[in-house]
Amino acid sequence: MSNRPPVCLTHRMELIIRPDQEAAASLVARIVASEVRANPRAVLGLATGSTMEAVYRHLVQMHKGSNLDFSGVRTFNLDEYVGLDANDPHSYRHFMNEHLFRQVNLDLHNTHLPNGRASDLGAECRHYEKLIGDAGGIDLQLLGIGKSGHIGFNEPLSALKSRTREKALTPTTIKQNAPFFGGEDRMPRRAITMGVGTILDARRCILLATGEAKADIIAQAVEGPITSMVTASALQLHPKATVIVDEAAAAKLKEKEYYRWIFANEPEWQEYR
Length: 273
Ligand code: GLP
Prior knowledge:
With 273 residues, the chain is of the alpha/beta class. 35% of the residues lie in helices and 16% in strands.
């Protein structure tokens, strides 16, 4: 018999506010490290985007400075652009190789991203779901949030039960990510993304958002209604979702004092205070 409390007693979304971007990213990295130390064969769901760079920097430091061991870890990324080769410097495979995979002792065979160059994209999406299932599901899923409210590339109106599939990107997302490509006309219009349902199947979800540009969308996702117009709001349905923000991204939240109290007092957060 497991001595864990039944899920119905622990079911919740939590919001944690840290003073700045560095402190927020460091908290996320420490949670990942503690998962990997407790379970050396952990299956991690990973995210890309500029917000995640600081998290990976902290993980690399922990690998180099305190022997955080990734040798048994398996990873699945949320998404990849359609049409980009793994060697393309704009691909998410390239991003992950540079920021994390090649800097720690992860076996590249244990790292997975959808193949945006597959000849049959539908088959590739089904295969990706099967690989996640064969690995036993995702233990800890990292998430960022786009200005459109997306998690992965689940743009507005993505079904909350959706699985890995091809998705057209919204103008908001194209505008947000175009600077990485040197202009909107150079950016792919489609991506393969884990579905909202795929993400909700992860045993734990951690969403990180920093900076004032994310303040509006974080308030909608956390304190607004659950809606396919803001797919991050689906995390309100998850049994163990934690949203970690800095003060700037917390600016529009109504219940800031309550969230601060949680971090300062709940026993679960003691080791991180
Ligand atoms: C891309 C990814 C998302 C990520 C978002 C955030 O759109 N598909 O998964 O959440 O970027 O990007 P940034 O951290 O650069 O704001």
